[in-house]
UniProtKB/TrEMBL annotation:
Pfam families: Lactonase (PF10282). This is Lactonase family protein. The lineage of its organism: Bacteria, Pseudomonadati, Bacteroidota, Flavobacteriia, Flavobacteriales. Belongs to the cycloisomerase 2 family. Gene3D superfamilies: YVTN repeat-like/Quinoprotein amine dehydrogenase. Keywords: Carbohydrate metabolism, Glucose metabolism.
């Protein structure tokens, strides 16, 4: 009887068009109609967004990150030349501000939390610094544990993103044209510089974001200034450069600047966003060599695609078009990796999409 009832529910759900709605959080720039951080509902069956709701007023919360247990959310904000705000996610999934701390650099643009939920790192594009914070048990942030100044007399740093990987901290620095590697310090609770560049970048490449395979063997670095992806292999003897490959269509001749990069959940495909060409590039990834083959450049159906994300089912890719105030949704062919445009949803100045 129980089996028959379960079967009935499955059949009824299918026939009635039953859908599962999940939350998506949206970071924005507030130089237009936006007022801060928004929450939306995403239908994982039909691939549509709905129910835009302002859940926290903030000044240009341009990048968001969850704690590992998803009880807390952290945002880079441009108030007072740069702060990091910690929020508690309440039972109704609205946000409650816990505290805010100085980011120690202008224009904070990226934030990441370690797997233990004990440390947070912020990249300050304008200030050319990276700051490390401890996270308290209640989700609040301490004052900065360390502030790293990466500028030299010859080169101005523009730290753009950072990630905790194993016992290391990697930082993409657009200004220094490098991906820095820091290791845990022998003394104290912080980090110290291990190497200033894991691989040699092309001149004026401008590393912005990077993504890493689950085994931490291959690094894929998207370069804003010359519209390329740099592939590097993590070996016992350090990093080995595999290749640099263009993100643009062979026929595109205008100016374009890369933004975000993500692997598919099965790591068979790699996606990147191009601002100018206004496209998502799709690469087929060789699982043994790590090399890439470009298989598609598809219009984002909007202007200036900054951040994008793949939904938890792996069936849809959502991209925020900042200048046209819309999120475009694409279905993903899991066999080929290619995208197909589905629909668009209007939102104010989208710059960070977080499931």
């Amino acid at each position: 009887m129980k089996l028959n009832f379960t079967l009935f529910i499955i059949i009824f759900s299918t026939l009635s068009g039953y859908s599962q709605n999940i939350n998506m959080y949206l970071g924005t720039f507030t130089d237009g109609d936006s007022e801060g951080i928004y929450k939306l509902q995403f239908d994982t069956i039909h691939g549509v967004l709905s129910n835009t709701k302002l859940i926290a007023q903030a000044e240009s919360p341009s990048f968001l990150a969850f704690s590992p247990d998803r009880n807390y959310l952290y945002a880079t904000c441009r108030e007072n030349d740069g702060i990091i705000s910690a929020f508690k996610i309440n039972n109704n999934e609205d946000l409650e501000l816990i505290n805010s701390v100085d980011s120690h650099g202008g224009s904070p643009c990226h934030v990441a939390v370690n797997n233990e939920g004990t440390k947070l790192v912020v990249s300050n594009y304008g200030g050319g610094t990276m700051a490390l914070f401890n996270i308290n048990s209640d989700g609040s942030l301490t004052e900065a544990l360390q502030v790293f100044k990466q500028s030299t007399d010859e080169e101005v740093s523009h730290a753009h993103s950072a990630q905790f990987i194993d016992h290391y901290l990697f930082v993409a620095d657009l200004g220094r044209n490098s991906v820095f590697k820091y290791q845990k310090s022998d003394v104290g609770d912080g980090y110290k510089l291990k190497t200033e560049s894991i691989v040699n970048m092309q001149p004026k490449a401008g590393p912005r974001h990077f993504t890493v395979t689950k085994d931490h063997k291959y690094f894929y670095i998207i370069n804003e200034l010359n519209s390329t992806v740099t592939v590097a292999k993590n070996t016992n003897n350090g990093f080995k450069l595999i290749e640099h490959i263009s993100t643009l269509d062979d026929d595109f001749k205008g100016e374009s600047y890369c933004a975000d990069i993500h692997l598919s959940p099965d790591e068979q495909f790699l996606y990147g966003s191009n601002r100018g060409e206004n496209s998502i590039v799709v690469f087929k990834r060789h699982h043994v060599t790590g090399k890439l083959k470009k298989i598609q450049n598809i219009s984002t159906e909007g202007d200036w695609p900054r951040n994008f994300t793949i939904d938890p089912t792996g069936n849809f890719l959502l991209v925020g078009n900042r200048r046209t105030n819309n999120i475009s949704i694409f279905s993903i062919n899991k066999k080929t990796g290619k995208l197909k445009y589905s629909n668009s949803f209007d939102v104010p100045s989208p710059v960070c999409l977080l499931f």
